[in-house]
Amino acid sequence: MAYTTVHLLRHGEVYNPERVLYGRLDGYHLSERGREMAARVASTLHERGADIVSVTASPLLRAQETAAPVAEAFGLKIASDERVIEAGNDFEGSAVAKNPAQLLHPARLVKLLNPWRPSWGEPYVEVIARMTAAVREVRAAAEGHEAVVVSHQLPIWAMRRHLEGRSMVHDPRQRRCTLASLTSLTFDDGTLVALDYEEPCRDLLPDSSTAVLP
């Protein structure tokens, strides 16, 4: 019996004062608090004696910066994987969080009508397929140990709902996947036997006046 755990780690807070929906845009660094979050997660895993043998991250800067302290804590190199990147988003580059009224423009409003192909443009089924493939590969390589995969809120949440057999139609504001949270998948060989969630940085989460977009 070989138990293997794959920890899906959401990146930390990003420096984004204009509240741009950055999506897959590169160049968005972690904020000072985001760097503290990344260090906290690394410390949490190391202090509990986690048997981390690999660290994989989305190629986006915020994910790479979140992965760095974890990789350093366990003496590992970061492997980049496009399959765990943020979901494609047609609103990328806009500031819809700062001015939600932008969504009422007919060209944008029409993108909200189909819950199976949401505003970000990439269907849930595609997000789940690439995340599943990446997790399967990481699990096999880390057989009998633990691994960390740094990704983004939507891909992690889609993976979780899929594994729990729940519909993907949901309110994005109700996602249980906060900044620098860990969604941990434990497998017995290739069979999922446990799904756990924790927030090592709960006390560092921004309040509603400083919240940033996922």
UniProtKB/TrEMBL annotation:
<dbReference type="InterPro" id="IPR050275">
    <property type="entry name" value="PGM_Phosphatase"/>
</dbReference>
<dbReference type="GO" id="GO:0005737">
    <property type="term" value="C:cytoplasm"/>
</dbReference>
<dbReference type="GO" id="GO:0016791">
    <property type="term" value="F:phosphatase activity"/>
</dbReference>
<protein>
    <submittedName>
        <fullName>Broad specificity phosphatase PhoE</fullName>
    </submittedName>
</protein>
<dbReference type="Pfam" id="PF00300">
    <property type="entry name" value="His_Phos_1"/>
</dbReference>
<dbReference type="InterPro" id="IPR029033">
    <property type="entry name" value="His_PPase_superfam"/>
</dbReference>
<dbReference type="InterPro" id="IPR013078">
    <property type="entry name" value="His_Pase_superF_clade-1"/>
</dbReference>
